[in-house]
Write a structure and sequence with these properties.
- The chain is an alpha/beta fold.
- It has a single domain (3-234), classed as Alpha-Beta Barrel (TIM Barrel).
- The chain has helices spanning 3-12, 24-32, 44-47, 59-72, 91-105, 117-127, 156-171, 184-190, 214-217, 227-235; strands spanning 16-20, 37-40, 77-81, 109-111, 132-137, 176-180, 198-201, 209-212.
- An 8-stranded parallel barrel has the order 1-2-3-4-5-6-7-8, surrounded by 7 helices.
- Strand 3, helix 5 and strand 4 form a beta-alpha-beta unit.
- Bound molecules: 3-methyl-2-oxobutanoic acid.
Length: 238
C-alpha cells in the first residue's frame, strides 16, 4: 500500500480501512484482516500500558511498540504517533523526533495532533522528507484543554475552526487527516475542502475511511472511554 494507492481509493470512493496495532501479533492479525493502514497510536498508553491518558507515554516506549508492529507487517502503510511533548516546542524538535521514528522503527508516516503551531511542525517534517498525518477534532494529548474526552466542533464557530485547521494542515503538506469525535454534519461540511484522504473516528460516515482502536474493535479495553470509542461502534465504514 502506498500514499498513491490511498489517493486512488479516495478518488474511486472506496473506503480506506485503518486500525491501530501495538505489537507483533496484533500487526499480523490486522494485516491478515486486510487493512490498508496500521496506526501505532499513542492510545497504546491506555490500551496496552495502563496509563489513564495518552499523555505519559514516552518516545522510547512508542519506538519499541512501533518497531514491533513494523516486524509484523508487510503490505499496509505504517503510521507512528508522535507522543505528547515530543514535537510541539520547535520545528527542530519535531523533525528530530520524526527522524528517530523513521530510522529506528521503519514507520512510513508520523502523526501529530492539533492545528495552530502543529501546522508549522507538519510543514517542517514534510520539508525534511517525512510524510505527516494531521489529527483534528478531539485531540487526546490536549484533552484537558478541550474540557475532557468530549465531541468537538459542536457550534458553528467551532466547526468552522476545525475546518480551517484541517485545511491548514493539508496546505502544510499533510498526506492524510484524522478527524476524531465530531458531528457527522461537520465531517460532511469538511469533505469538499479536502483533496487528501480524511479518516474518521466517531465522525460519521462521510470521511474517506475509518480508523478503529484494536482494543475497542475487540471489546478488550475497560479503562477510560474516549468520546469517539462508543461512537465508532455505530458509525462504521460507509
Ligand atoms: O492514538 C490513537 O489510537 C489515535 C486514533 C484513535 C486516531 O490517535
Amino acid at each position: 500500500m502506498t500514499l498513491g494507492d490511498l489517493a486512488a481509493k479516495k478518488a474511486a470512493g472506496e473506503p480506506i480501512v485503518m486500525v491501530t496495532a501495538y505489537d507483533f501479533p496484533g500487526a499480523q492479525i490486522v494485516e491478515a484482516a486486510g487493512v490498508d493502514v496500521v496506526l501505532v497510536g499513542d492510545s497504546a498508553a491506555m490500551t496496552v500500558l495502563g496509563y489513564d491518558s495518552t499523555v505519559p507515554v514516552t518516545v522510547d516506549e512508542m519506538i519499541m511498540l512501533t518497531a514491533a508492529v513494523r516486524r509484523g507487517l508487510t503490505a499496509p502503510l505504517l503510521i507512528a504517533d508522535l507522543p505528547f511533548g515530543s514535537y510541539e516546542a520547535s520545528d527542530e524538535l519535531a523533525v528530530a523526533t520524526a527522524q528517530r521514528f523513521v530510522k529506528e522503527t521503519g514507520a512510513d508516516l508520523v502523526k501529530i495532533e492539533r492545528g495552530g503551531t502543529s501546522v508549522d511542525r507538519a510543514r517542517a517534517i514534510v520539508a525534511a522528507g517525512i510524510p505527516v498525518v494531521g489529527h483534528v477534532g478531539l485531540t487526546p494529548q490536549t484533552a484537558s484543554s478541550l474540557g475532557g474526552y468530549k465531541a468537538q466542533g459542536r457550534t458553528a464557530d467551532a466547526a468552522l475552526r476545525l475546518i480551517d485547521e484541517a485545511a491548514a494542515l493539508q496546505e502544510a503538506g499533510c498526506s492524510l487527516i484524522v478527524v476524531e469525535a465530531v458531528p457527522s454534519e461537520v465531517t460532511a461540511a469538511l469533505m469538499p475542502h479536502m483533496h487528501v484522504p480524511v479518516i474518521g473516528i466517531g465522525a460519521g460516515s462521510d470521511a474517506d475511511g475509518q480508523v478503529l482502536v484494536f482494543h475497542d474493535l475487540l471489546g478488550l479495553y475497560a479503562g477510560v472511554r474516549r468520546a469517539s470509542s462508543s461512537a465508532t461502534r455505530t458509525c462504521g465504514a460507509r
